[in-house]
Design a protein that fits this description.
5 domains; seven-stranded mixed sheet; Beta-Lactamase; 19 helices; alpha+beta; Chemotaxis Receptor Methyltransferase Cher, domain 1; 42% helix; Rossmann fold; single chain; five-stranded antiparallel sheet
Amino acid sequence: MNDTDTTADDGAGLDALLAYIKEQRGFDFSGYKKTSLGRRIDKRLQARHAESYEAYRSLLDADPDEFVELFNTILINVTSFFRDEFAWAFLSDEIVPRLLEARDGEHLRVWSAGCATGEEAFSLAMMFSEAMGDEEFKSRVKIYATDVDDEALATGRHATFSPKQLSEVPSELLERYFVRENQHLGFRPDLRRAVIFGRHNLIQDPPISRIDLLVSRNTLMYFEPETQGQILANFHFALRNDGYLFLGKSEALTTRTNLFAPLDLKRRVFTKVPTRELRPHLERGERLAPPTVSTDSLVREAGLDQVPVAYLVVDYDGRLALANLQARVYFGLGQRDVGRPIQDLDVSFRPLELRSRLEQAYAERHTINVREVEWRTQEETRYLDIQISPLTAKTGELLGCGVSFVDVSRYRRLQVALQDAKRDAETAFEELQSTVEELETTNEELQATNEELETTNEELQATNEELETTNEELQATNEELETMNDELHQRGLDLNAANLYLEAILTSLRAAVVVVDGELRVQAWNNGARELWGLTGDEVVGQHFLNLDIGLPVQDLRTPIRKTMAGELDGEPIHLDAINRRGRPVRVAIGLTRLGDGDTNVGAILMMQSEERA
């Protein structure tokens, strides 16, 4: 598919394809930049020779595995350890000491958003462990590494990397934090437990709360400005008031400057500006509004979220009515899953077939307990005690069932900490309000100049982000080509070794050996043949054997060679009178062997031994 074919589809075709992907697989790419998104999708169209977006949609219907290749192309995972070392040095020397001083003895929560295969998450782990010591790090720090790419998350969970991936890690850190695992190096298992990987969509899913340091490097640049503002609002909610935001070198906060203040603009480190907003809404285009639920409801909801057990409520009609935080983390549930039939969710059959147990609980009206259910995840095997309890009203009417999952495995991993109650930022907002009113007059005078500068800055920022995206795409392609080149080089070395080995065998044989192909052209001519007939391999290789003038009546061998290649001779040698290279008459015994495998005919091998006649 060429560039002309690509442009044949209009914007409506791309929008229809994106809507289909969202409907089939739940991936919503509507907030991504259309130019970059279209370019990456066109790459898959070219690879699959699809002439249009509509044709590619038909291909997705016929080949569901193509969704995996498409998502891998769209979700470019270009990352490395300690990427942009000057920014990481500032983080290590300035930000980490401030956090440790402010959180003396408290737990630290770090979020690596858009973590890809986890290099930045493990860079954070090494940085904090260096500052705190291993034991204190393991007891106080949790690093949440999230992404929408399940394949990248699976790679990160294994925590094994090639020497090339670890080339940017200083040698002293490499020796201290990695252990040899065959041809790769694995991150230390005792420290690995502090890094928790999970799937998280920055647009659709609620943000993780009470974060001290939020790292999102070169992730925002893939989204439209409106979507960037929504994500930054979620980041603002996630951070504690004295937390820090660490962005990539190609990103700036042009869309929501009132939420964050630059601490070091060159290294893209920002601090949170407290506001009156309690929580950003997660649906795009929805305005912020005060909560309408009662304080008691909030307390009950927060209290349920504090329960350290995964808990679901299924109503009598078989729909998911409630899932606490532990259940959402365990089973990948989100707010959009509340209200869906339980049979449409994976949790209905994994780790246990729930529907039959729910019916049993309704029929018998007592709690059903299932002990030590085995649940295999990508990381480890867990064992759960599952309890299904019918819920009844005061009138005795069945309302539904509560389902709890208690982790009883020996090595239980800590789950994502529960979301705290809303922060009281109103006092700080009121104090800032008076200052804002005093600055309004000055802001109006500077507004015209500021708008012109913002326009220019946004244009430059868009160009810079496009160039950065293109560079990362080229980097990914270059790494693929390097891998292919290494493989081809190794194959060439293997082939050369095989040829040298074969040549050594032929040279070591004293008898004259000639190998011909199916057309009777000479393919091999050893030293014995040269000593017998006086011609070198360079003179005869590639020549027709029956055209050689070597003192041997080669025409008498035409029929025996043909029969040998056809498998009609029994292998008895043929005796012919000939003249050797010294002009002496000799009697030559010629053994013929078919060269081939099964029905495949490659040629024949002639082995000649001579005796001089008196």
